[in-house]
Known about the structure:
It is a single chain. By secondary structure, the protein is of the alpha/beta class. It has helices at residues 3-12, 34-47, 62-66, 83-94, 98-106, 108-116, 119-134, 149-165, 170-182, 198-214, 233-238, 243-269, 286-296; strands at 23-28, 51-56, 76-80, 140-145, 188-194, 218-226, 273-277. Strands 3-2-4-1-5-6-7 form a 7-stranded parallel β-sheet, sandwiched between helices. Strand 5, helix 10 (198-214) and strand 6 (218-226) form a beta-alpha-beta unit. Helix 8 crosses helix 9 (170-182).
Amino acid sequence: MTLSANRRATRTAAPRRPTLVQTSFITGKGGSGKTTLAAALALALAQRHHRVTLVDLDRRGALAEGLREALIHPNLRLLALSPHGELQAFIERIVPISMIARRMLNSRTFAFVTAALPGLEAFLILERIRLIADGLGPDERLVVDGPASGGALELLAVPTRLTRLAPVGTLHRLAAGLVDFLRDPTRFRVAVVLRPEELSLSEALCTRGALETAGIACAGMLVNGASDLHFSPAEIARVARYPALDQLARLHQQRHVATEATRRRLRRLGLPTVEAPRLDRSITGRAELEMLADCMAEILASR
């Protein structure tokens, strides 16, 4: 083939399809709606013919309380992980005799040992997530409803700390494998949920900065509750005589102004951003979750 033919082939080649991230880890400020958006992401993938595991790390069981029924889909399964449960499973794996394993777990001495190793439970949670990810097929995906921002950063920092505490040996090898997993952008990315409010935006940007420092890829910013409902000064003046309408119009205007300010800041920083609309009632059914799933689909693709 001649050089010119090569160039023509390059120009006419079909564009490469974006690769979906294997594991999407969702975090954000408490109250930002991260659990709802994690559920929406999982549903969006399931509806696009992927087999999805949605992992719930919330000790309060927020998924079980409000969204479990809305998440019924043949391609979607829910999995709740708890630190104590993972510790128990770990002990039962290394101590094959169940009676001895139960005695260890219930002993006061063992409780003191685990308390002295605060990173152990976090390590076991992340190791379980990695093992699940390792077993995924080409069309399978993992979505993790992680802790709020501060807890998520503490959780994700544990493997690196363990590699320093244990410079050699089995623990170092396992922790180093976890670090590699968390720093591989094709396998693991974090999406940060925020509200269009100054405090929430500041925390989200700090979270993204900490992820960047740790070498962990950020999939993007999920702005929850974005509002495009705008009232002109003339329209607000027109409803001023009706106190309830005036208060409602001004509230919507404040939300719109806050949304625009958030958009400008994220745009200046060049951050990938996806917006979820503000809903006027709580997420209680499948229809609302599907609406958010459509909005969230874009964040699933690698950039």
